[in-house]
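=== RUN LOG ===
request id: a7f3
mode: sequence -> structure
chains: 1
length: 333
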Amino acid sequence: MHKSVPNTLLVIKNRALGDSVITLGTIQYLKELLPKTKIIYAVPNWIKPLYDNVNSAADEVISLNFKDMGNWIDSYQILKNKEVDTVLELFQSGRTAKFFKAVKLLGGPKYYFHNHHKKEGPVHDQGIIKSNIQRDLDAAWTYFGGEEEVPIFSNYHPQIRPHTSVEKENLIILGVVATRQTKMWPLSSFLQVAKLIKEGHPTFKVVIPLGPQDQRLEAELVHLGLPENVTLVKAPLNELPELFSRAQAYAGNDTGIKHICAALNVPTITLFGPEPPLEWHPYNIDEHPFFYKEPLECRTRNAHYCGLSTCDSMICLNEFKPEEVYQELLKFI
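=== RESULT ===
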């Protein structure tokens, strides 16, 4: 089947921070596949600053919002101004589906999408549970690929690079935040890891990044007592890549910060609880090992993961010991 080559392709990922980073691997594939096509990457407004001071595979990164009619008008104008002739949405949302259905009536760009939740559809291996970066690659190959084989996610590690050169320091990033409580290793365990680092490597500093919405976590960390080698950092997204690039390693929850570190080629150690690594950890386990307790019947009682926001037992995470995490960190220090 002949597939047209876009002049300007808009790739949309209207999801969370980590999702946006993972999709960079698919954009790398698209750049190889469509070398003459300008590729614009659209992410939510709050995520856009992450890409202000870094290089990525995208020719341009912009923000698009679809919350109300005002956003729709602005987004439509951006499509026209950027001369977008083709759109690929990965992990389609209901709002964007409605928007592009309306835009099509106005003679807008070609619109392709992948809805990860649907069991059937045109995308290769639609409905099969696999790494999310692979599902994105499946969609790109389906709509724009040729006779070549389906790309493998291990060949398309997401990458970003700070604009300025960065030197490594004796620095460890501990990622204590997460999108829900059930994905969070106990704060006391993180501080114990920091103490072990201080005892074994007294020249090393530990940074714990926090966002503006993490006041409760900050208060609890202070209440527990911060070791002398720990600094709480509340930096804007556009400053995080340079900071993280200085680190020797990341250890923490499965969250957007982890994916930023991985894209910067910083080794990561991830603690997985309710969600399996299969979908959210498309990385070489030698450089990015993880902790994951299986089998757990409670995790897969209703689906292939646990969707609870809170849990009394937290058996999936609480049994991992700080000493175990520290021993993994020693491989990268």
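=== NOTES ===
The chain has two domains: 8-155, 166-329.
The first strand starts at residue 8 and ends at 12.
=== END ===
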